[in-house]
């Protein structure tokens, strides 16, 4: 059974590019501002259909997969 994708484990592992937010077919990802004013994606689990498009489009995840 598929699980809700993990976009990043630490904020430093997210560049804030909004690619995941933009590609989500169910608008299950929202960008939330942290205390320093940077936006980070948060997945709304009730909307997520676990298609993993957000993971596939992430430039940082792609770099990690290539290594």
From TrEMBL:
InterPro entries: 4Fe4S_Fe-S-bd, 4Fe4S_Fe_S_CS, Polyferredoxin-like_ET
Domain 4Fe-4S ferredoxin-type: start-end pairs: 4-34, 39-67
UniProt keyword terms in alphabetical order: Iron, Iron-sulfur, Metal-binding
PROSITE patterns: 4FE4S_FER_1 (PS00198), 4FE4S_FER_2 (PS51379)
An MF annotation (GO) of this entry: iron-sulfur cluster binding
SUPFAM superfamilies per UniProt: 4Fe-4S ferredoxins (SSF54862)
Record PANTHER family: POLYFERREDOXIN PROTEIN FWDF, PTHR43193
Protein name, entry field: F420H2:quinone oxidoreductase
Source species of the chain: Acetivibrio straminisolvens JCM 21531
